[in-house]
Design brief:
Layout: H1 2-42, H2 57-71, E1 77-79, E2 85-89, E3 101-106, E4 121-123, E5 131-132, E6 138-139, E7 155-157, H3 166-184, E8 193-198, E9 219-225, E10 230-235, E11 237-246, H4 255-258, H5 264-274, E12 290-299, E13 304-313, H6 316-337, E14 340-349, H7 360-370, E15 376-380, H8 385-393, E16 397-401, E17 404-405, E18 413-415, H9 416-434
Parallel strand pairs: 3-8, 3-9, 9-16, 10-15
Antiparallel strand pairs: 1-2, 2-8, 4-7, 5-6, 7-18, 10-16, 11-13, 11-14, 12-13, 17-18
Helix pairs in contact: 1-3, 1-9, 3-9, 5-6, 7-9
The structure holds zinc ion.
């Protein structure tokens, strides 16, 4: 009996160990593909442009190249009219219904700094010395303490005349490598997976033409974060508040008779009443929001003054208080000064915390631990693609590290190792979510 029992047990143990090491080896097998893929992507100019009707010719070229590369994997790929690339992979599980895992990244690069004609420099076995680039650009430990961790490792920089574009071509590299892995290993168990690669993130429009029939997962993870382990679990909600005061034309000397009304005074008073200096950005930190009147315009022909506010907050109640204060000031000034005042609020992005499922973090954290990564959750005083999706479509997601450092700068650089670890995290996420049932258990 003992012998009979011992044999199957040993087999089970061996089998179990075999799966674990195969998983490790599987990821390692794809590591060598990642750097050349990244280098290829950063050399395609794909800057977004705030003034573009929708997108730039460079972005179109990048989108086309990505679509062709991904389609060749043989996965169900959809290239939308608005140049989003979607891949919807059906579940291959027969015994349970797993929730839908969503993974996203963006292929545009920032318009804030030149990203055309990028000449990537690969530094292997980094020796720890300051990296001197063209135009006097230097990357060193002083400006960049995290660089200390890169001694002996591979990093990539630009030549100093452009940014690198690791934001977010590191994320794109991770997603495409994940798709290649899934296509070439069809027996790897997974639930339904939705992948989207978007344009226009750096001009705040990546969620604008997202088609929910192709991307509306239960758990969404955006690969667009920074250093090893970083996870953005919360971010600012952002509202644009435009207040206009409509004056009445006429000669001011006879205002008592002709009804002339000035439009500057109501706006000046409204700013004083609704946006005291203690709520300005320079007096806000941590999880505190702010209200900034950052731009005033006058249309003389129509006698209209306009103030454009930036409103930022983590806490919905705090945001609502600001909005109430603006509306109250507008109402009482309209009455006191006898002018029409209009308040218009546009939601730009929203804190993902309002729309994330409670187990989304534990899934990610398990996937990270499997990859030897310690999760470093943080809250961002800015917006993310997930935050734009949250504002427009009401479901939130976390932003995961990709190995990009110093985005939107001539000194931007990539950690090859962190990019590879992030890919392992993505692969582990597939495994984590596949083990769940739709009930969320
Ligand atoms: Zn980005």
């Amino acid at each position: 009996m003992r012998k009979l029992l011992a044999l199957p047990l040993a087999l089970v143990l061996l089998f179990g160990a075999g799966i674990a090491s195969a998983k490790g080896n599987l990821a390692d097998k794809y590591r060598a593909d990642m750097l050349p893929r990244f280098i290829k992507y950063v050399q395609i100019d794909s800057m977004s442009d705030v003034n573009a009707e929708w997108m730039t010719p460079g972005q179109e070229k990048m989108a086309q190249a990505l679509y062709e590369e991904i389609k060749a994997f043989g996965l169900p790929t959809y290239f939308s009219e608005d140049k989003y690339i979607y891949v919807n992979i059906p579940s291959n599980l027969s015994n349970r219904q797993a929730p839908v895992l969503g993974i996203s990244a963006h292929y545009d690069t920032t318009p804030d700094i030149i990203g055309v004609n990028v000449k990537p420099q690969v530094i292997k076995n980094y020796d720890g010395k300051p990296i001197v680039l063209k135009n006097g650009q230097v990357i060193d430990f002083e400006s960049d303490p995290y660089l200390r961790n890169m001694i002996g490792k591979t990093i990539v920089t630009s030549d100093g005349t452009t940014n690198l574009g690791a934001d977010d071509k590191a994320g794109v590299t991770i997603l495409v490598t994940l798709l290649q892995t899934l296509a070439e290993n069809p027996k790897l168990p997974h639930g339904p997976i939705q992948v989207v690669i978007t344009p226009n993130e750096d001009v705040g429009r990546s969620a604008e033409r997202l088609e929910l029939q192709y991307y509306h997962p239960d758990y969404a993870y955006d690969f667009d974060g920074g250093v090893n382990g970083e996870v953005v679990i919360g971010n600012f909600s952002a509202d644009r508040v435009v207040v206009t005061a409509q004056g009445i034309n006429g000669h001011q000397s006879f205002a008592a008779e002709n009804g002339y009304r000035n439009s500057a005074k109501p706006i000046a008073d409204l700013i004083a009443a609704a946006a005291p200096s203690q709520n300005l950005p320079n007096n806000s930190s941590g999880e505190e929001g702010y209200l900034e009147p950052h731009h005033i315009e006058y249309n003389a022909t129509d006698n209209i003054h306009m103030v454009d506010f930036r409103l930022r907050y983590f806490d919905q109640k705090e945001g609502q208080n600001y909005l109430n204060r603006i509306q109250r000031a507008a109402d009482s000034l309209a009455q006191a000064l006898d002018v029409a005042i209009n308040v218009e609020v546009t939601k730009q992005y929203e804190n993902v915390e309002y729309g994330v499922k409670p187990e989304a973090f534990s899934l990610l954290s398990a996937a990270m631990k499997d990859a030897g990564v310690t999760p470093q959750p943080k809250k961002e005083r800015a917006g993310t693609t997930s935050a734009m999706i949250m504002a427009k479509h009401g479901f939130g997601g976390y932003t995961v590290f990709t190995g990009q450092n110093n985005p939107h700068a001539f000194t931007e650089w990539l950690s090859e190792e962190d990019m590879f670890k992030a890919y392992k995290v993505a692969l582990n996420l597939v495994n984590q979510v596949a083990q769940m049932n739709v009930s969320g258990k």
